[in-house]
Amino acid sequence: MSLMKVDNLTTYYKxxxxxxxxxxxxxxxxxxxxxLGLIGESGCGxxxxxxxxxxxISQPGEIIKGSVQLGGVDLLALDNKTHxxxxxxxxxxxxxxxxxxxxxxxxxxxxxxxxxxxxFPDMSWNDMxxxxxxxxxxxxxxxxxxxxxxxxxxGGMKQRVVIAMALSCDPKILISDEATTGLDVLIEAxxxxxxxxxxxxxDLGIIIISxxxxxxxxxxDRIGIMYAGFxxxxxxxxxxxxxxxxxxxxxxxSSQIDGNDFDKRVESIEGVVPRAINPDNICRFxxxxxxxxxxxxxxxxxxxxxxxxxxxxxxxxVS
Length: 319
Hints:
Number of strands: 12
Order of helices and strands: EEEHEEHEHHHHEHEHEEHHEEH
CATH topology of the largest domain: Rossmann fold
Strand order of the largest sheet: 6-7-8-3-9-10-12-11
Largest sheet: 8 strands, mixed
Shape: globular
Radius of gyration: 21 Å
Number of helices: 11
Helix content: 25-40%
Structural class: alpha/beta
Distance between the termini: 31 Å
Strand content: 15-25%
């Protein structure tokens, strides 16, 4: 069952030099009880995509076109009041850097209750307190932390609190934007275990935005590869890991260190990422691709299905 349908989503940032084309014609569906990973190098547009899904792009950014359908409702077409009501209740985000996401002047419990009070104004104080304690327990934290201030918590504990806040209004979709960045390996594993448990128990649709290949291939059911603002390949985790088609996806995995094969030669991708300001209307990977042909310099390739679950945007692979 589809929870969210993204169609032709395009987001630009205005600068004096021109428009930074950060996200271009992004389309995919997120299903119930599924974890979808969006991965790519820094600057590929994955975080811009996350904020575009929430319709939270601020100036100088602007969503140029496209739609984000949640249960048949286009989140991008709503007025401000209706949009605010849907955030947290239908779709919520775990932001980057939990260290900075919490207000240092307010107790943990008050910060979680704030969202509950806003979206459920008729709920009694005792019920809100009971729900907040249950949320902390769900992410593995003691209810005693309700009265604690953020500075008393470790990085991993803060991350769990932010997850609890994101779950406070029972959303159907959860977006995790680099949620484990800055955490050690043990804490990262615990956070991933929490996300997997939440997917199973709440039947959530989860989007994980990351640049960590190992993380994405370990936890995700499907994976989307982004490059220079475009989604260039999407498929099941097994298809992307073991049967990648796009030259960039193959290069990305070739640049990864293999813990099971220390003799593996790690390969770099020659060249540089093209400028996102007023780029040429060609395949963005053209100048770095070893399979490039004159066909690739005409216009960017469209996403084409090569199986019911696997699509790629590459003239050479499709032909």
